Amino acid sequence: MWGAPEHVFVWCGLRRMESREGPDGRPRLLIEWLCGAQKRYKVLHGGLQNVRSCRRGRALPGRLDWRPRLQRNLAGVVKARTAAADAVVMADSLLAPDQPALEAFDAFSWSGSSEPPAQPAPQTGALDPDVAVRARLSAIVIDGIIVGIPTAILTAMLGSTARSPDTALLFLGLQFFYFFAFELSRGQTIGKRQYRLHVVSCDGEPLSSRQVAIRNVLRFIDALPFLYASGLISMMRTGRRRRQRIGDVAAGTMVVLDGEGKQLRTPRWLLPLATFLAVAFSIAIIVAIADAHPARPQFPALVGFPGSYNGQAPQTGDWQATGATDWTAGYVGEYAGRQHTESWTITHACASSSLSSCPFVLTREIQGIPPVSAPLVAAADGWHARFAVGVFPCESTNGTAAGWQQTSTMILTFANGGQAAEAHEQNDSYAAACGYGADGVSWTAQQAPQ
């Protein structure tokens, strides 16, 4: 009886049913069911036991995958009265005479009636990605905190080197390792475990290292540009039955709520609202970055007179100054060695002669613009003056006329009783259409005869 040939059926996913003798000497009925890849379900005297993968020999999370799908297939089988009867007869011929074939299918409520068996109440939340949305949003916050704390500590320890590309790759690698290690070993990170979430394969197979690697490499794409906006859009696009982010679509995985997990009420508006806010915030940040000034290039620093400054104060009156450009960057028509002449006037800001209450003021007459003035402030390396020179025309990159705002900083030292001066000047300009411009000029000046 136990050497009976294999019998093949064509029932909604059921492929083969045969009987063998178990290790305890009692008959055992095997059903092999195909769903993408082979799986075997052992039915021993009416009980479903030891759901295992033929490929890897690992126990699958049956509560999540196999039972609802197998029950639906069996329900489709028993709708056909003739096929059901033939199956009972064939099973009966394979079992011991004192063991009815129907006993082997008690676990699925199969009776001799032509009506489908009553389906057990579905496990709330299992295999339903839509009800897991709120839990997923909460879990990623926890995982983000867990990953963010060591990242912040390392950033503080590394200081300025934390901005290097190598360090950025190190941080990304640490984040990838956290998600990859936990999801490969147990199908859930610490945040997912808190909310009873599992990452499962769409075909019912155990998660492979390739699937886990793909979904977590693409996590960085899902996070772009900010707040997982791309991933949330993908979850909206894949619909309520899947709710897959880009990494899940590529890896063939889903995130579902364990049947034993406590559901968080997930309103229908939660995912659309979260997606809208993430996209709106991302657009706002991108616009702000686009409007922000680009990084200022590294220009030579303005140097004073730390070794030769003697603290002499200037004489008030008119001055004649000549200068030459030392270096230039970004200015059209400017070049090193270009000569300049200006008229200066040094006055007191008020009638008092006390420098603390009435500082000196330097007024410059620059060709093409109105005079500009700035107070002279004594410092360790000379007298400092900062001028808001005004707007100068510049040629933009697309050929249209534009103007940039220029500021000028000077450091002066006086000699010969305050009647002679040396000065170092640096001009800085910026316009969105023209970019940055700067130059350095060295001056010598003499007080004009009275």
Walkthrough of the structure:
The protein has 10 helices and 16 strands. The protein has 3 domains: 102 residues, no CATH class; 163 residues, no CATH class; 131 residues. It is of the alpha+beta class. The strands form 3 sheets. Strands 11-10-9-8-16-15-14-13-12 form a 9-stranded antiparallel sheet, with no helix packed on it.
A few lines on this structure:
The protein has 450 residues and is an alpha+beta fold. The protein has helices spanning 66-78, 81-94, 133-158, 165-186, 190-194, 209-217, 219-222, 229-238, 246-251, 270-291; strands at residues 7-11, 14-21, 27-35, 37-44, 47-53, 197-201, 253-257, 317-329, 339-348, 360-365, 372-375, 377-379, 382-395, 401-415, 420-431, 435-447. It folds into three domains: 7-108, no CATH class; 129-291, no CATH class; 317-447.
SSE topology sketch:
Blueprint: E1 7-11, E2 14-21, E3 27-35, E4 37-44, E5 47-53, H1 66-78, H2 81-94, H3 133-158, H4 165-186, H5 190-194, E6 197-201, H6 209-217, H7 219-222, H8 229-238, H9 246-251, E7 253-257, H10 270-291, E8 317-329, E9 339-348, E10 360-365, E11 372-375, E12 377-379, E13 382-395, E14 401-415, E15 420-431, E16 435-447
Antiparallel strand pairs: 1-2, 2-3, 3-4, 4-5, 6-7, 8-9, 8-16, 9-10, 10-11, 12-13, 13-14, 14-15, 15-16
Helix pairs in contact: 4-6, 8-10
